[in-house]
Amino acid sequence: MAGRLLKVSSVATAVVASSGFYLYNNKLDPNDISLVRFGRAAATTAVISYDYMTSLKHVEYGSEEYWALKSQLSDLFISFDVKPQGAASLAQVHKAVLHDGRTVAVKVQHPKVQTQSSKDIVVMEVLLNMVHWLFPDFAFMWLVEEAKKNMPVELDFLNEGRNAEKVAVMLAHFPWLKVPKIHWDLSTRRILTMDFAEGGQVNDRDYMRRHSINVNEISQNLGKMYSEMIFVHGFVHCDPHPGNVLVRRCPNTKKTEIVLLDHGLYQILLPDFRLSYCRLWQSLIKGDLNGIERYSRRLGAGDLYPLFACVLTARSWTSVNAGIGNTPVTHSEDVEIRSNAALYLPQISDLLNRVPRQMLLLLKTNDLLRGIETTLQTRAASSSFINMSRCCTRALARHKRSKAQSRARRLQITMSESLTLWQISLYELFLWVKGSTLGGWVGSLLSCLHYTH
């Protein structure tokens, strides 16, 4: 039955793909479940660049006003590349130069995409009802609910600009993170103009090798950035596919940078949800089974908490039992997960219907990040769990301080937080020494001493 369902609906395929490795290697984009990608292919036309002016004025294509505005592009730009730098189902991006010499990227929404989106929702709803009728065990109507909620947000480019500015301020303490500046005077709901950013995609190992970019540093910084978003702030960029995360060497400082693009879709995590999610990940890293069950149930998984833990981490239950921070990822484990995914499709469907809607975009984000780590061959690194542990510790301590009634209690919480963070740093130092040349020498010396005795 699962095999037949996979032929009927690409939605089922997205659900089965519980690991980023599976998604990446099968060329699947979790965004395929959104309505525009569900109903049509992106329309690319030679005149799309001139929609910039029509969007500003809300004029009809082909009218006299349209052609008059078309001739006024030179008032805004010295040059405007008609050929897009990149295109997707909602919009495409053109390179342009302002009169002051600054190079900008102009993101232009495809014509009629807003009117088409309502039709796409109807198509999606009909198809999902058909799937549910054919296979009652599989209920995916939450996809329609999420599409109805998220698509208007993604189509409002002014909202995307506000998200970009918010995350830039929120993560300003990361000097290696760059978010292109928004040009509000040249932006509307259908047009977004921002500084142009160059770089290679985050999964392009050849680009990183040519530019002497450390793959492990990129993976570690990506983990830091998302741990901060999820656990500390609860404001999460939910579309980190490789085209939206660029890497480069800064032309001035020569330091490695990450450029974060496409800020249309963010998930805001409610405080109770975020704190339970923090505690769940702490339990997963340590292998605390009681904690895993307790916080999985709080997040709506119920009796399916073992499956929830496996889906969330893309690890086997054996690894979850041992603590995912203590067990490296192996190829055989990945094969096991992909092989078993289809067998548990009804339970996965049930699980996705149980958990809060906030969890759905987090699962998608986890899969995309895991796919990047798999490509960079850094999934087995401990640094990601160390960063998560730090952020969870900080988030929970901040929450406890906000609830503390006395200065003494707040001081106690701060001291406990500092001690835990010190222990995490000490463990990180131990791992570094263990993996270094010095660690190899010490290990050899200890082996010799043990042999002589």
UniProtKB/TrEMBL annotation:
GO cellular component: mitochondrial inner membrane
GO biological process: lipid homeostasis; mitochondrion organization
Pfam families: ABC1
Physiological role: Appears to be essential for maintaining mitochondrial cristae formation and mitochondrial function by acting via YME1L1 in a kinase-independent manner to regulate essential mitochondrial structural proteins OPA1 and IMMT. The action of this enzyme is not yet clear. It is not known if it has protein kinase activity and what type of substrate it would phosphorylate (Ser, Thr or Tyr).
Protein name: AarF domain-containing protein kinase 1
InterPro entries in alphabetical order: ABC1_dom (IPR004147), ADCK1_dom (IPR045307), Kinase-like_dom_sf (IPR011009), Mito_struct-func_regulator (IPR051130)
Gene symbol of the encoding locus: ADCK1
Family: Belongs to the protein kinase superfamily. ADCK protein kinase family.
Xref: CDD domains: ADCK1-like (cd13969)
Domain ABC1 atypical kinase-like: 69-295
